[in-house]
Amino acid sequence: MSKATFGRDRELAVLRRMVGDTAAGTGGVLVIDGSAGIGKTHLVEVVTALAHEAKLEVAARTAFSLDRAAPLVTLASALRNCQPATDTFTWLTDTQESQYRTLDRLREALEEFAAHRPMIISIDDAQWMDELSALAVRELVPALASSAVRWVFAHRPGSTNTPGQQVLSWLLRNGAERLSIRAIDEPAVARLCEQAVAAKVDNTVLALAGGCGGVPLQVEQLMTALRMNGQMVFSRGVATVTGDELPSSFITIVEQILNGLSEDAQRLVRTGSVFGRPFRISAVAGLLDRPPAQLVPLVEEATAARLLTHDDDALCFAHDLVRLAVYGTLNESVRALLHREAAMISRAERRPPVEVAEHLLKSGGEGAREAVTILHTAAREVSGLAPGTAADLIVHALDLIGVEDPERGTLIADAVRLLASAGRLEQAHNLGRTALRAGLDPATEGTLLLGLAEAFKHAGKNATAVDYADQALEITGIDHGLTAKLFAIRAHALFYVGDLREADRSGASAATAGEISGAFGATVFGLTARSLVAQAEGRLEESLAFAHQATRTADRVGGSAVHRHPRIWLGNALAAVDRFDDAERTYLRGREESERLGTAWSEPLWHYYQTALLAARGQIDDAITEADAGVAAAERLTTHQLAVPLLGALIRLSVVRGDPAQATDYRTHMRRLTATGITAAPEDVAWAEAVLLDETVGPEAAMDALAGIHDAMPERPALITQDPAAAAELVRIALRAQDRARAAVVVASARRLAEHNPAVLSLAAAAAHADGLFRADPERLRRAVDAFRRTPRVLGLAAALEDAANLAVAAGDVTTGRAYAGEALGIVTAAGARRAVPRLEALLGQRPVPSPAVDAGPACLRQLTEAERKVALLVAKGKRNREVADALFVSIHTVDSHLRKIFSKLGIASRVDLARLVAERQPTP
């Protein structure tokens, strides 16, 4: 280590343990926080030194505020400068891929690299990391949790709501280890003083150092100032302080150090302070109009005074506080001149446009006008990768121009769209409302309203989305392409607010206008809305036809149409007509397409529909894993509205698995989201609430939650089309609540569905089951059992068998009842539907003899589900997560979720531990 560390025994112990764990193959996250100058940077350097001693790979970088307009620069720069050097990440230099494809490729590169060499990635001043780097961290930390990748972030807590600060808060909320740095104590201050002056110090020095509040940076700078200004004298190896005008604040300390330099060195340091980042000697030479070679001795003088330090081939200030103190010594006219020259130099060096704009803004005069143009251009360049950053740039530009400026309308339209896409809905709403009052041309106004409608739709605020779309559609003179997009958004939003008829009309209008204008993305989105409406109304063949038409259109025209991923809804329509294998293949192809295109927005939807398919197949544990992965993806992508239906599925599945406490936790999470105004289909929210209430409170409470679903059932039998077994469950709850009228409504709705969809056996089974339960008719229940046997819906079969068993036993036919109950018990046991097990065992009169255990491999894995065992065995053989996903035909995020559960169940922390555990406990041949 370059210098000793004093007063940090606790912190050093944490860092040594962390590096040791990483060397042993365990990943994780450490967040170091503390006030400015407290010593965070030094501890990051300690991590690097310890990592090198342990032969670990280190990727390190300090982030700067200017990083925000250069997508991925923070993380890419760290990885490109790994020590020891590697060419694994050189491709990050100039990638033209979509952001999500880049992150997917980076994930695989990191996982592959860490499989052979554990690594530490450290970011100092992480609050300044750029938006795409912050998104990458949010994506990669959970994805690489099972790999030997350790993340270390140092930051200064504050109110600045930067992408970096947001992701650090997210990491801490999700279990990252926190190391808060405090001021060092008096003995440590004394030892730091002695190190800084290379001598013992007396009480005069310690008394002055005591005024620094235990902040190491201030102590070190104070010692430098005293030495440079001759206010520290040495006698017999002991330093003492003399003089009357002693520095009393950090700024005066820095000023004294600066004043101790030669005039030329002072000029160099002051000039360099206009750069908010490391700078080359050639850059400051340009500002001083001197040959770079002449500045070398001046640089050496400044570094000896500990004002500047070397950062690879550039110079930077010892700390940003030092730079700000030096910058404060410049008078306004000199600052403006230097910033004007710095803008020219930055442009010549092809620095990011926002850096050029920052200099222009501080140069005054005409610079501000030019800065607006540059900021607008920069925003457009980064909008696809960093919409939040782009929005900040546009808003900054808006602050610089007058209300009458002719460019203001275009700037506002762009700003609203970007703010909305970044999820900053309130700010977008307020700015858009202001702009609309001021008046815009039709095309700009329509585009602005479309951006707001899309944003509120994607945020789950569907009623507001409809309002914005309606406002736009009232504008005369907008083109067919814009009209098509508005109708498509309107159709999906109307579906979720329950207006099925109008949603279908809007979907049809979107499809027609899209074909006319060539806006085929709107055509596809409109058709998928019509598919959803048709399914909700029980027109399953039409639902399938619309989904097929949307998919064929997307495949034919490509482009934005493919990005709408109609296979999401095609798979759903196929599952509704019991074509599970076709649905599975459709989801697999669609997911592969989504990964290839990098359209991460769709990820939670793939998880949602795959969850429904797994649950229908009776694979409860796998369905829960899939839904958990979907919720994690939605939160990682901040698409919280997509987490709501997944949480609804988790509530229902947890009840079926016999875990109402876990279901209650999921409901709490779901309610937190819906309390923000997010809306979702009642089949996702109200049905989940009712299932849990029926289990924990009683049928009357469940019926209260189901009132809306029951009342809409004749026109909207969506719950039964999604899950035919729900028909009997609805009847059962109503009968237990003494509400035969509503039970009869369900029976009639199930019968109509079956009649209108005669090719769908599961609907015939559902109708017979609901009617048999309502009438206590054993013949109808037998028909339900027979029909369910010919479908892949095994839990529907189990429920029908249980009701048939109850009726048979009640009628005195114990033999038939036990036969039905035994078959049902086998199904629910295999499925993991533990809620039904005690009831069926009671019907059988005794606990059945367990069937011979299936070979689950090593005994240590028998507590895992079948899917988890498959993942564990492949990982133990050295397979990477992508290889496991490909081998098992699941998403890589599902593999991540499985691994987190495997590690938790087995009490291990790394892939190395898993491989060792499996190897040690393999059964002997």
From TrEMBL:
Highest taxon of the lineage: Bacteria
One Pfam entry name: GerE
InterPro entries: AAA_16, P-loop_NTPase, Sig_transdc_resp-reg_C-effctor, TPR-like_helical_dom_sf, Tscrpt_reg_LuxR_C, WH-like_DNA-bd_sf
GO BP terms in the entry: regulation of DNA-templated transcription
Keyword field: ATP-binding, Nucleotide-binding
Tagged with keyword Nucleotide-binding: yes
GO cellular component: cytoplasm
Domain HTH luxR-type stretches: 857-922
Keyword Nucleotide-binding appears in the UniProt entry: yes
Example GO molecular function: DNA binding
Annotated protein name in UniProt: LuxR family transcriptional regulator
